[in-house]
Write a structure and sequence with these properties.
Blueprint lengths: L1 H45 L6 H14 L6 E3 L4 H9 L1 E4 L2 E6 L2 E7 L4 H5 L6 E5 L2 E2 L5 H8 L6 E7 L7 E6 L1 E4 L5 E4 L4 E5 L7 H15 L5 E5 L8 H9 L7 E6 L8 E3 L11 E5 L6 H11 L4 E4 L7 E9 L2 E11 L9 E4 L2 E4 L7 E3 L5 E3 L8 E2 L7 H8 L2 H12 L14 H10 L7 H16 L2 H24 L1 H29 L1 H10 L2 H7 L4
Helix pairs in contact: 6-7, 7-8, 10-14, 12-13
Amino acid sequence: MKKRNILAILSTAFILCLAAFTYNKEFEIAKNIEIFANVYKEINSNYVDETNPSSLMKTGIDAMLHQLDPFTNYISEVQIENYRLAFEGKYNGIGVRAKRIGDYVTVTEVYQNYPAFKAGIKVGDQVLAVNGQDGKGKESEDLFQIVRGMPKSEVEFTIKRPGIKEKLNLKLIRDEVNIPNVPYSGMVNADVGFIYLSTFTENAGKNVREALNKLKTDHPNMKGAILDLRENGGGLLSEAVEVSNVFIPQGQLVASTRSKLKEREQLYKTANPPADPTIPLVVLINNHSASASEIVSGTIQDLDRGVILGQISYGKGLVQNTKDVGYNAKVKLTIAKYYIPSGRCIQSVKYENGEPVHLPDSLRVAFKTRNGRTVYDGGGVKPDIELPDADYPRIIKKLIDQDLIFNYCTEFCLKNPAPTDPKTFEFGGFEDFMGYLKSKQFDDLDTLEVKLNEIQNLSAKEGDQTIAENVTKMKNHLNQKQWSELTKHKILISNIIEEEIVRRSFYEEGSIQKKMVHDPIIKEALSILSDPLRYSKILGKP
């Protein structure tokens, strides 16, 4: 009897503590919301300058969410079109990409068959004004907040086109722009098909399936396939399942999610018969392949369905969901972690107070693929065949960042006939490009040169001529080294220029076709697919 009484007392105490905890937490939430509102009221009433309510509130919300992880974000009403673009591949606008180059926003890509394309806007066009608003000094996002709007509404552009003195005034009719998530599919050679998937937006799985079926129909003797997920930052989890389903059987587990709320824990299995469950497959990834890309590549690896080739993926094993928070705004929250068929989670870090905490190798856990190969959690997807980092050398990044290649290609296209075939076009003007760089006084300003400039300025102040002369000699040496470095990368630079020139006439599809010709990773994929014994050995098949 005493024992029962003690248990009853303990149970009651626990419930009271829990209630108190719940009460205290709710009280703390209510208290801090009231404090926040009061602070905002005081700012609004008493701050010396006028404030922007929307901007101020967004800053506060962003700071709060920053304490969680980089993928939990507030999406304001004005950012909704960007959100639609990221997750649906759609937005209401004119169908261009642009960036600020110099004083003006410059068109860097035109999507076929959308308003900008129909109006004749070209890559290299400078946007002088939108709806009469001066574009000088504006960033692309500033202008395109104006450009985006309701379908069938009108927007007016004032354009400065290279090679033409007069300004162009163009009236465009906005429309829904749907950027393709499979911008290109085709044959690399007579035996191997290639599918490039750029993002996991709506219908990604359907489009990959249709692309593979078309390749097989048009080329009945096709013996292998390459799925390119490089630079693919992910998207919808459901589409990752659908893309996996193109190559793996119906009813196969692709991913599971785990959360602090049991109702959010789900199993994601393939729902349809595969397009081809046996065709030899190579999946390409790099360190920018994230989230849904890692689900697909990790699933293919766990099931030994294909060879993963490239660099270790980003390592994002978190699941986000969006919640409406009123006035057409949303908050995107991390709600779970996902796990792939072997049971591993590929999340590279955890977050404490908004800061990443990397998982040491000693804490990574080993798992087994279907054929018994060892794979590890906690560090992204490690390729079966790992190739060197494909990042550009620093000096070439400088050329790209300073828009020197882009601007040169604009001038080149004004002076030369357009390519007739994206695959066969060859750029033979490397010396001309070097001359262009010299005319623009290109200087890569490496770390050593920056330090030498500091020494030169100090020696000038001190009046030490000897040091100044020695510094000048060293700078001249570095300058000569710079041009030698560029010459060393002649082939790579020429390849980049070729892709940019081809893009002007054949758009993204043509650029991809050109890249395929000289891509060393695609060449390695072809080598693997051409050797059935090597392919089987990599996958651990008996």
